[in-house]
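Issue 218. Parser rejects a valid record. Input:
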Amino acid sequence: MFKKVLYTLTLCLCSYQAMADDKINVCATSQMYNALSAIAAARDDMNTYFASGTDLYAQISNNDRKCNILISSDEKLPIQLIRSNRAEAASMLPLVRAPLVLWSKNPRLFNNGSTMAISDRQLESLAIAKTELTPVGFATHQIVSKSAFPTNYIKDKLFRAEHEYEVYSMVDSENVQAGFVSKPLVTSRNRMANGSYWVVPKDYHADILYYITIVDKAENTDKIVDLYKFLKDDKSALESYELFGFENLNSAENKGQSELKGFK
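Output the parser choked on:
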């Protein structure tokens, strides 16, 4: 009797493992967590895993993480994988755009997207991501380097972070008054985090694009391609991205944007 029960349990475990192995592994940088988790909750054919771009590259390169589809917050990661023959070059395409926002925990600082605090030099401290490390850092530099965005009066209160998560932490803890981050980082199901923000007009800076790439389709080729197409083109998937702060590539302009006087 015991052997029969053990045999049945073994069959169940093997069946469960086979079902788990049959799922497609979608790996993404952490900013995609909310949007992809919502998509995965409505499907039974995908697993999700989230990490920084650096960690994803190391895990995929060392065969520590099996990823069939990759969504990255810049083009650097998929290009590295393509060069090492670990991703398909033809599948690397832009997926969505991430709007850039200047965010503060103070609900009145950028009330209704107002830029008065910038023009009137009311900022007390500012956090920005380093220019050379991420697209958010590069886009931020394009803003703060303009005379229309004065920072000389707070040069001793201008904090440079390694990445936007560090900027977020500085502002969230209220150690810094405001900071530039991508909108998905402070958006939860179509609602912004506490505070106020200015959506930077997208023609003020280079696009912050997310890319989708097929990394490994050695198994379940058709299923992987089908999910890749779904994540890239399906209306419900695109709506999920927008719900959590991303922007459709075909969108004409950012919602709620205000022009900054004198910005060229």
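Fixed in the parser; the record now loads. The chain has two domains: 24-97+209-256, 100-204.
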